[in-house]
Amino acid sequence: MKQRPWPIVLLALFHVIAPLGNIVVNAWLAHIPLAYYLHILLAPGNRSTLFVFTLVPLIGAVLIYICRKWSYVAYIILMTIPFAYSLISYMRHTTLMMTVALILFYFVNIMVVGYFLLPTVRKIYFDPRMRWWETKPRYQTDFQCHVEHEGKQHWVEIKNISEGGVFLETPLEFPLGSPLKLFFRDPQGVLNLSGTIVYKRQLAPLGYGFKFTPESSKEPRLKGLIHKLQSDGAIVLGRVPGPEDSFVYWVRSLFSFRK
Questions:
Q1: Got the DSSP string for 2-55?
Q2: Residue-wise pLDDT tens for the chain (259 aa)?
């Protein structure tokens, strides 16, 4: 299994250990022993505090790690809970220590939430093509393919294939979301597969990412073709970590205003 980008793993881990930090800081601010603070926190009357400072970060960690569009939205909404709770607590018990703690809390959370609002980070959650660690293995091919679109027929080339779809190399114009039917010859005859255009490649080689329908993905002959290409060693190497995966690049991105 391919590893997720380390910033996602690190931020999820940060949320996992956050409850312990919250408990230690709150016990220190209250000037009470840690063991006694834990006893108070577990009391039935403090369930709301227990939820905000322990369960919310843990849920946030899961949402970050899942890396889906819905989990991104859910995470942003979830983070409003500790913001609101801390503000209400501050208004009820305004002290110098509470003010310092609130400023520190808001600073850390704004930095974390702000990171997830960066366009490059948001795109990973909203665009499945960016989640390279989830992609199925692709295999190099050089098939001539007959494409049927809106009653018209065209010839294109299939440059790579997986159980999920293919890359069609062609200068032809197809709108995103267009349903297509592909016909190409495999060792057992003509293979007929259906799907939709999911992205367009603007750089050379020009072409389109084509996603199979669930029915086509389960086609036994497609699976047989994939198995043969795998046996022939035609696999396309996965994404290699680049400069954008380094710790320095990530830290700089936190303070960059470029989109």
A1: PPPPHHHHHHHHHHHHHHHHHHHHHHHHHTS-HHHHHHHHTSGGGHHHHIIIII
A2: 466 777 788 888 988 988 888 778 777 777 888 888 788 878 887 777 778 878 888 999 999 998 888 998 898 888 888 878 777 776 776 555 555 555 666 677 677 777 777 777 787 788 776 676 766 788 888 888 989 888 888 999 998 888 888 999 998 888 888 899 999 887 777 888 999 998 888 777 888 988 899 899 888 888 888 888 888 888 776 544 445 455 555 556 555 544 4
Domain boundaries, the chain: 6-129, 138-235
Using alpha carbons, list the distances in angstroms from residue 13 to 9, 64, 78, 138, 167: 6, 10, 17, 31, 36
Among candidate residues 171, 234, 164, the one with its CA nearest the CA of residue 201: 171
Helix (H, G, I), strand (E, B) or coil at 219: coil
What are the backbone angles phi and psi of residue 122, rounded to the nearest 5°?
Answer: -60, -35
Q: For residue 147, which phi and psi values (nearest 5 degrees)?
A: -110, 135
Q: What top-level class would CATH report for the domain 138-235?
A: mainly beta
> Whole-angstrom Cα distance, residue 165 to residue 186?
16
In a 3-state reduction of DSSP, which class is residue 189? Answer: strand
Crossing angle (nearest 10°) for helices 34-41 and 6-30: 100
Q: List, as one string, the DSSP characters of 156-181.
A: EEEEEE-SSEEEEE-SS---TT-EEE
In a 3-state reduction of DSSP, which class is residue 203? coil
The helix/strand count (H/E) of the chain reads as 11, 7
